[in-house]
Amino acid sequence: MSYKSIIVNLAVDAPPAAMVKLGIELAERFGARLIGLAAADVPPLVATGDGMVYEGEIMQMQRTEIEKRLAELRAEFEGLVPASIVSEWGQAVCSPTRFLSVSARAADLIITGSEKGENVFRAADIGSLVLGAGRPVLVAGSNVEHVRAKTVLVAWKDTREARRAIADALPFLAIANEVVVATIDTDSDESIRDSLADVAVFLEHHGIRARTELIAGEADGDRLLRFARSIHADLIVSGAYGHSRLREWAFGGVTRTLIDESGISRLMSY
């Protein structure tokens, strides 16, 4: 298994070079096609006591600004990607999250930055993207140009999402120097040890040697991150746990902590 088509998302308000270089590195490592994408949208008309905030002329000016920025990002992407990599470009004036989610059908992996995405018109919402794309999402740490995946932490929980994440991460796990499958043991349940052992056997059948760890204590995202740093993990693999409610995504504590983390790269699946 390998990634043969990789999307790299470029946020309109962030410098693109680091993300493009990361995409190039992974495309070269896996022999993949690299697809550069960028999108932003014009906020809709908003009614206030003084009338409509955005008039047609203002909206057109904003659209022109977005199109100019998208053209700049395309030029930077095409200028950085070497001819040895098969690449293509896509852009749109629309919701970045929606554009990425729709475009995910053409890729094995999506790479995006750690931008929090408070402005959903100009940056992808990571949580919504992970839950809606149907593809693994690699959320790069801040200013990361390399994901070596030398030490990979698999945050295990015996759920569909975690099983999906491990399968989606196999190309990274196969090239890692060390793979640690860890779970937070909240009640000393023997079945937890059995599930860890089963995961280790599954990985062994894929030629991947992994060690397992039980982290004592309550299920807490900060506890997981402290463990990741203690083993010098440069990639965390995790399922995403959430549900839709009133068109927003609500997450469990560990998932929310991983989404908000920016120091370590994370590969998340749903």
Name its key features.
270 residues, alpha/beta, ten-stranded mixed β-sheet, 9 helices, 14 strands, 26% strand
Quick overview of this protein structure:
The protein has about 270 residues and is an alpha/beta fold. The protein has 9 helices and 14 strands.
Provide structural commentary:
This protein has 270 residues and is α/β, with parallel strands linked by helices. Helix content is 39%, strand content 26%. The protein is built from 9 helices and 14 strands. It has helices spanning 17-30, 56-80, 96-103, 126-133, 160-168, 170-175, 190-205, 221-230, 253-260, and strands at 5-9, 33-40, 47-48, 51-52, 87-93, 109-112, 137-139, 151-155, 178-185, 210-216, 235-239, 242-245, 248-251, 265-269. The strands form 3 sheets. It has a 10-stranded mixed sheet with strand order 5-2-1-6-7-14-11-8-9-10, sandwiched between helices. A hairpin with a 2-residue loop joins strand 12 and strand 13 (248-251). It is globular, with a radius of gyration of 20 Å. It starts with a strand and ends with a strand.
